[in-house]
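Please decode residue identities from the backbone states below.
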């Protein structure tokens, strides 16, 4: 299924909302999904993996308990909730690196690191396991985290230039992934009721 960026964003937002995320976090999920797709990553597939994880059913267990020191949650960190907190706490990176522990699907953190880089007007580096990548507002140099990774990620300031990444304007979403997202999005629609069916037409007669 070939989608425009607007279609991708709208579908991702409805799917995240259908999975139980509040509208604000659903908008963040849509932003991150679209950002990844624009840069040739499987953003829609990663979103399905995130929604299937079920974090939204009790999001409080998956949000950073504090933005001081190492960021941890009672359970695995949700990358959307963590990314939103990172955007708000970007200036902390001017003082010291930010450590994320037990972060799920960390590829979703990359778009928020790019947002933080824009806020700070500097490149940022992500490090995990034995890999790293440099992120700016418009570019990524290095590999992306595997969407199934669950571990620690360090984010810090980086000096140097990064070539601008080419942007893709059409998203190739696999049919099965598109169907899964639509299934989540469908949950945002209210089921038909007797009252809603009666209200579908005019209650007034057309006869004078």
């Amino acid at each position: 299924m070939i989608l425009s960026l607007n279609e991708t964003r709208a579908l991702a937002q409805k799917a995240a909302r259908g999975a139980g995320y509040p509208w604000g976090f659903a908008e963040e999920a849509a932003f991150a999904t679209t950002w990844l797709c624009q840069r040739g990553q499987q953003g829609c597939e990663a979103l399905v993996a995130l929604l299937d994880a079920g974090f939204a059913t009790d999001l409080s267990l998956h949000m950073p308990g504090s933005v001081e020191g190492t960021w941890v949650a009672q359970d695995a960190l949700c990358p959307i909730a963590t990314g939103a907190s990172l955007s708000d706490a970007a200036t902390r990176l001017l003082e010291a690196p930010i450590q994320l522990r037990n972060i799920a699907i960390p590829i979703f953190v990359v778009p928020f690191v790019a947002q933080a880089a824009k806020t700070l007007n500097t490149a940022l580096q992500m490090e995990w396991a034995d890999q790293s990548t440099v992120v700016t507002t418009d570019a990524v140099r290095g590999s992306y985290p595997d969407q199934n990774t669950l571990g620690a990620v360090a984010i810090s300031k980086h000096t140097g230039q990064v070539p601008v990444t080419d942007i893709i304007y059409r998203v190739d979403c696999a049919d099965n992934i598109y169907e899964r997202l639509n299934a989540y999005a469908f949950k945002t629609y209210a089921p038909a009721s007797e009252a809603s069916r009666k209200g579908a037409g005019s209650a007034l007669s057309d006869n004078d």
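Observation: Confidence is low (pLDDT under 50) at residues 199-206.
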